[in-house]
Amino acid sequence: MKKHKRWVAFISDCLMILVLLAGCGKPSYEKLLEGTWYLEGSSSSQFELYSDGTCKITGEYGTGEWSVVNDDQLKLTNFYGETQTVTIVDIEDGCMTLTNDNGDTVQMWNTPQE
Q1: For 28-54, what is each residue's pLDDT tens digit?
Q2: Coil, strand or helix: which one is 27?
């Protein structure tokens, strides 16, 4: 009976470790996206993403909303409810690469690029 309990405890510990490791696989885009983003070669921001899910989109009236959908898509919604969704290809060293449905790719930076 003692061996059985140890075996069950061992299996339980292994499962707990696997569950914890599964959560460590991919970084949370939400945290990486918070802040101000600039187009490559520009010193003017394109949008600011806030931790509460709101955003300020340059050239748009009022406050919008943003979220990550389908694990890798940035969804921006302006004050009027108009939505644009782009796929996040990569975020590394302060540079975010995005692509749209047409395959157009753009790089954005979290610091002004002059």
Answers
A1: 788 999 999 999 888 899 999 999 999
A2: coil
What is the rounded average pLDDT for all residues in the chain? 81
The length of the chain is: 114
Calpha distance 63→100 (Å, rounded): 23
How would DSSP label each residue in 45-109? EEEEE-TTSEEEETTSSS-EEEEEETTTEEEEE-TTS-EEEEEEEEEETTEEEEE-TT--EEEEE
What is the reported pTM?
Answer: 0.73
SS3 38: strand
* CA angle, residues 58, 32, 91, in degrees to nearest 5: 90
